[in-house]
């Protein structure tokens, strides 16, 4: 009688596939663990409404609103004034980071956004539209430069810093007001 040898079933391909899947799962979980354990960006500031109206966010006793409509600098200031506010004046790195995160919350590309700084009255005489003192700067290297003699208004997010531009350019903006004064 001839014996037929049956070949034992091969599970090696299944085991290889399972070990590949397990390795991918392990790497994924390891990546999640690293992400959770990594320190977050110190500049990240959580947006909170606090005592501010709807669509406004609170930071250090002031309310801030991102305005996505592209306006000239003067029209952006007029809009803010119509809201009993002004274009944002920035007085510290913490406030700069808050404004940056506010913009990022509504515009993930972090596009150029008007702030309340201008030298329209006198070239080089920078003033905030709310009349507060200019005691902080976050200029991009080589700025302000008054390119072609027509740059008198300032926007945020030019290489994550400030830049002077013609006031007739149109950008979104950020308005702010002091909570106690409203």
TrEMBL record:
Origin species: Lates calcarifer (Barramundi)
Family matches, as SMART domains: CLECT (SM00034)
Pfam families, alphabetized: Lectin_C
Domain C-type lectin, chain residue ranges per copy: 59-176
SUPFAM superfamilies with a match to the protein in the record: C-type lectin-like
Gene3D superfamilies linked to this entry: Mannose-Binding Protein A, subunit A
Source lineage: Eukaryota, Metazoa, Chordata, Craniata, Vertebrata
UniProt KW keywords: Disulfide bond
InterPro entries: AntifreezeII, C-type_lectin-like, C-type_lectin-like/link_sf, C-type_lectin/snaclec_domain, C-type_lectin_CS, CTDL_fold
Protein name as annotated: Lactose-binding lectin l-2-like
């Amino acid at each position: 009688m001839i014996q037929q040898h049956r070949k034992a079933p091969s599970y090696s391909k299944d085991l290889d596939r399972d070990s590949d899947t397990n390795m991918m799962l392990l790497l994924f979980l390891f990546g999640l663990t690293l992400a959770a354990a990594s320190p977050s960006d110190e500049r990240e500031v959580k947006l909170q409404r606090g005592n501010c109206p709807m669509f406004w966010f609170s930071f250090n006793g002031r309310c801030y609103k991102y305005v996505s409509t592209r306006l000239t600098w003067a029209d952006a200031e007029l809009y803010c004034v119509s809201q009993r506010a002004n274009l944002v004046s920035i007085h510290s790195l913490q406030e700069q980071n808050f404004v940056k995160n506010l913009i990022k919350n509504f515009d993930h590309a972090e596009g150029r956004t008007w702030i309340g700084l201008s030298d329209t009255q006198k070239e080089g005489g920078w003033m905030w539209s709310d009349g507060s003192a200019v005691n902080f700067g976050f200029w991009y290297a080589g700025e302000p430069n008054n390119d072609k003699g027509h740059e008198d208004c300032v926007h945020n997010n030019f290489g994550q810093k400030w830049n002077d531009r013609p006031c007739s350019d149109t950008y979104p903006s950020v308005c702010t007001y002091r909570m106690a004064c409203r």
